[in-house]
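FW: tagging you since you asked about this chain on Friday. Here's the raw sequence from the shared folder, copied in full. Didn't touch anything.
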Amino acid sequence: MKEIVNKVAQSKLITIDLEDYYPQGNRIVIDIKDWLFQEIILKEKEFRTYVKEHDWSQYKDSYVALNCSTDAIIPSWAYMLVTTELASFAKKIIIGNLKELETSIFQDIISQMPFESYKDMPVIIKGCAEKPIPETAYIQLITKLILVAKSIMYGEACSTVPLFKSK
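HL: got it, structure written out here
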């Protein structure tokens, strides 16, 4: 009887699973509409009081998106003021929603990846993540990989979709 050989394990294929890079920490949206007069008007004195008295420690080690879900016009300094209190607790702060927050988190992650280690290598970008990996992260990843990789595929080692092959 012939021995079964795992050719995938013996190949030089490198699999990148963005889920492996997914950082721990709560993702939280702070909607400042509740801090506005009638949820539409920012009154500076009252806003400053709310920011000063709010328990910011509840956001320790969290990723935070600041936004206002009403059509209020929020001056830049208001988000900046909130950030002065929040920065010592949160891992990351953006203005936006949860999708934009995840995108920003992965921009940071991908910008720090060691792409030279993929030089002239066949790479598989693993799909089917259980964690919320933004589509944009895959685009950012492949944009960096095409500069160094020999080939890029998407999917699982047993069933990939070829995306790129260097010339």
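FW: The first strand starts at residue 14 and ends at 16.
HL: agreed, and The two ends are 41 Å apart (CA to CA).
FW: great, closing this out.
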